[in-house]
Structure formats: C-alpha cells, structure tokens
Backbone:
C-alpha cells in the first residue's frame, strides 16, 4: 500500500503544471489518450481552499483526495487535540510542545523532550507540508498522517499514555470532546477518529509563498542575487538536486527516498549495530520500531529498522527543504547547528561509512558559494514566517565562526582519500566539476 502511494505521488508529481490538473494530466496519468472510466473530476472542479504560490491544486489533490477535504469542524477539533497536553500521561506534553506552531512547528532543540524531561534520539521535524510526505518520520515508518499521530501519544518517553484504550477513555471523560466527537463523527470517541481529526488539522498546514515560489513563477526580483546564485549551485556544482530536486513541476525538494549521507557515522559501528538489530527487530511491529527509533541507540540505523535491507543502514528520509531556515538544528539527530554546518558536512563529502550514498561526494565549494547556498535556502521561507526567518538568519550568521564540521582541505580534494570505498576516486579537483 505504501509503495502504491509512492508510485502515485511520483506519477502525479511528474504531471504538475503548477496551475491545474486538467485533461492533459489525466492523459499522462493513465498513459493513454482515451479518458478512462471513473477518472477523478479535474482538480479545479473541487472545492479547495485558497492555495499559496508553490502549492498547486494538483499537489493539494494528492494530499487531500477528492471527498476527503477536512471539514472546518474536524480541523478545529484536530487543532484543539494538537494543542492539548491532556493527551499525555501526566498532562504536560502536547503535540504542540515539540511542534510549536509559532516557531514553524519545531522546538528548536537537537532532540525532542517528552514527559518527565525524557529526551529522545531524534530531532522534531516540522509539521508544515508534512501532508505532502510520501511517508512519515525520518525513517518513513508510518505511511500516513493518521498512522503517525497515533504513535507519539503512546510512546513511553513522548506523551506516554499506556494504550489506545486509555487515550480513548481519557478523552471520552472530557465533556467538551465527548460532545464534539459526537457532532463531527457521529459516534463516541475512537482512537482512529482522534487521529483523523489531528490529521485533518495537519492537512491545513501547507506552506508555500516563499520568495523562491515567486521567483520560479517569473518574478525575477523575488530572490536576491546571492539566492539566485545559490539556486544555480543547488542544481549544479552542489548536486543537491540529486535528492532535493524542485521545480514548478515537482515543488517538494525531496525525492521521498532514504539515503545514508553519513550523519551518524562517527557515533556508531554500523555493521555490528545492524547485526544486533537483526536479532531484535520484529518487522511490521510498528510500536516496537517506534520505541527502538525514539529511545535506543538502534535509532541511528534509520530506515534499516523498517526494512532490514542492508542498503538502508543509516539511511534517513530526504526532508523537504521548505522553511528549512526555521527548523534548526538540522538532521535526524539535530547534530548540525546551522545551515552553514550542513554545507560544511556536504562540502567535505559527508562522513565515510560502508553504507554512504553514492550521491555524496566532496564538492569543492568556496566559502562564497556556501554563503550563496545558505541564502538560497533562506529564500524558501513562507511569507507568514518572513520575520522569524530573518531572525533565524541573523542568529545563524552569528554562529558562522564556530564551524566544527568545516574541513576545507578535504572539500577541495587536497587531503584524504576515500579509503576502503574508492581509492583515488578521481584525479580531478572536484572544484572543477559543475557549471561554475
Ligand atoms: C516529545 C516530542 C514530540 C511530541 C509530543 C510529538 N512529536 Fe511529532 N515528532 C517528534 C519527533 C522527534 C519526530 C521525528 C521522529 C522520528 O522520525 O523518528 C516527529 C515526527 C512527526 C511527524 C513526521 C514529520 C515528517 O516530516 O516525517 C509528524 C507529522 C508529527 N511528528 C506530528 C505529531 C503529532 C500530530 C503529535 C501529537 C499527536 C506529535 N507529533 C507529538 C517529536 C514529537
Ligand atoms: C544523496 C542524497 C542527498 C543529497 C545529494 C543532498 N541531500 Fe540533503 N539530505 C538528504 C537526506 C537523506 C537528509 C537527512 C539525513 C539525516 O538526517 O541523516 C538530508 C538533510 C538535509 C538538510 C537538513 C534538513 C532538516 O530539516 O534537518 C538540509 C538543509 C539539506 N539536506 C540540504 C542539502 C543541500 C543544500 C544539498 C546540496 C549541497 C543536499 N542537501 C544534498 C539527502 C541528500
């Protein structure tokens, strides 16, 4: 099922015109000129909210299938639940503690803190645009927003309620909810309905309207020169588009796949850890995998916990980069403090390990080029967060002289070799590769 959705998403992304999904797109979707029986009505015939630049009706239709539009009542209920600390064991932690709406739905911490100040292994991603993810979580262990929402409530160190039955009993005991659930779903509270309401709220959190969206829509001056150079580097010498491609057709900045880019490599002996995990993980046991991912050192195995495929060791989902200026610190473990640190990581070719993705190679970017790429990423901030983005840029700029990941010699190919993986991979200076 998950695979099916990925395929659908992939197909549909190919179809974007950025405007409407009309007859042509239908043709492309089905690979034939004849209009198939039972095809969906064109997107423009449906009732959709006003969509910002960068979120086309076609993209919206994928995340919100026709007939599944969230009703205002359901969204309001979902928002209440999202903000309600009573959904945790001790009444101290709501979804909104780790996904703070005013901060762009993140908490600004390297790893999230749940009940009783217990710290997990992973960084809180934003809920903005999560509705467009082909799978949820850094390792994709949940297929849908509904599946996802059910896990943190039950995770012992996040919200910590013992069982779905306990959650339901607790919410049924709160008169305002008992009534609203009756009204919205026509029955007493269930765990599925609770997750559905939260997911409905999340499906209102699409965020486009960044300077980039206006630039790509034809407004030449919507991005400054540094960001424009950064965009060229993103698709050229920086090779970011190998995994984070975006254009008017596919605006997500993510291939929706999983890659080992060498983030956790310095902390772990991946081979031993993976061998141990093979004995422990019960494939398909979502609750067990959730606990291993959030609470244990197996967390660093990433996608491998879900698939047990060797090629998934240390692999994590390529995140969407929209509003990435707001979501520091970065990566699944929050180990990189600023976007300059992220660039330093990529520039030196990541951290070597036997499972490193082939797309990660030293880049030979100069300091000026790194600044341009960071400027470009800050041009992905949605207009409603423009002030916060500016503040965050200033904060990160002030940290620019602390660059623990910077290794200019390695980045320029003047030092080190790629050892066991590919001795003397190329005699060329990687700084010469690319369009600049
Ligand atoms: C204790 C902090 C915490 C709480 C509480 C919490 N989350 Fe999260 N959330 C996280 C972390 C950390 C991750 C990433 C975990 C992982 O990938 O293994 C995450 C992942 C997600 C994702 C996936 C996003 C993506 O890009 O893959 C969504 C959506 C989400 N949370 C929504 C919610 C909702 C809804 C609730 C409440 C029911 C909630 N979260 C409660 C910390 C929290
Ligand atoms: C081989 C695929 C690949 C390439 C190439 C790649 N990325 Fe990534 N990117 C990823 C994956 C996977 C992650 C998450 C890794 C993790 O957390 O372990 C990531 C994470 C990030 C993050 C952190 C986002 C967050 O929310 O924490 C940023 C920023 C980023 N990439 C920017 C870039 C830029 C800029 C480039 C080009 C210089 C680039 N990436 C090249 C796959 C890639």
Residues:
């Amino acid at each position: 099922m998950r695979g099916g959705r990925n395929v659908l998403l992939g197909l549909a992304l190919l179809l974007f015109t950025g405007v409407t999904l009309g007859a042509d797109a239908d043709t492309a979707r089905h690979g034939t000129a004849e209009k198939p029986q039972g095809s969906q009505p064109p997107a423009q015939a449906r009732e959709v909210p006003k969509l910002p630049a960068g979120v086309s009706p076609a993209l919206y239709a994928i995340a919100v299938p026709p007939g599944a539009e969230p009703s205002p009542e359901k969204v309001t209920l979902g928002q209440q639940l999202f903000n309600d600390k009573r959904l945790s064991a001790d009444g101290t932690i709501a979804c909104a503690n780790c996904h703070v709406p005013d901060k762009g739905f993140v908490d600004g911490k390297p790893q999230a803190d749940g009940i009783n100040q217990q710290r997990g292994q992973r960084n809180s991603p934003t809920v903005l645009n999560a509705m467009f993810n082909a799978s949820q979580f850094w390792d994709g262990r949940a297929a849908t927003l509904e599946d996802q929402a059910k896990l943190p409530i039950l995770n012992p160190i996040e919200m910590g309620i013992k069982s779905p039955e306990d959650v339901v009993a607790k919410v049924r005991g709160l008169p305002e909810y008992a009534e609203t659930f009756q009204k919205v779903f026509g029955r007493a509270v269930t765990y599925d309905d609770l997750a559905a309401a939260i997911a409905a709220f999340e499906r209102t959190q699409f965020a486009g309207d960044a300077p980039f969206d206006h630039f790509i829509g034809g407004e030449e001056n919507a991005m400054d020169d540094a960001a424009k150079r950064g965009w060229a580097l993103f698709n050229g010498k920086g090779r970011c588009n190998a995994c984070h491609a975006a254009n008017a057709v596919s605006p997500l900045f993510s291939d929706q796949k999983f890659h080992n880019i060498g983030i956790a490599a310095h902390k772990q002996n991946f081979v031993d850890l993976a061998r141990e995990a093979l004995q422990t993980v019960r494939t398909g046991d979502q609750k067990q995998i959730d606990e291993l991912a959030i609470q244990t050192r197996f967390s660093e195995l990433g996608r491998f916990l879900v698939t047990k495929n060797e090629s998934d060791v240390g692999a994590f989902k390529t995140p969407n980069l929209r509003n990435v200026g707001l979501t520091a610190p970065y990566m699944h473990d929050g180990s990189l403090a600023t976007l300059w640190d992220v660039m330093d990581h990529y520039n030196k070719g990541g951290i070597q390990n036997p499972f490193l993705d082939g797309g990660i190679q030293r880049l030979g970017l100069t300091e000026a080029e790194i600044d341009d790429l960071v400027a470009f990423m800050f041009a992905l901030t949605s207009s409603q967060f423009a002030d916060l983005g500016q503040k965050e840029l200033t904060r990160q700029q002030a940290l620019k002289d602390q660059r623990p990941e910077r290794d200019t010699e390695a980045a320029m190919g003047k030092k080190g070799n790629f050892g066991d993986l590919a001795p003397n991979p190329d005699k060329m200076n990687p700084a010469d590769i690319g369009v600049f």
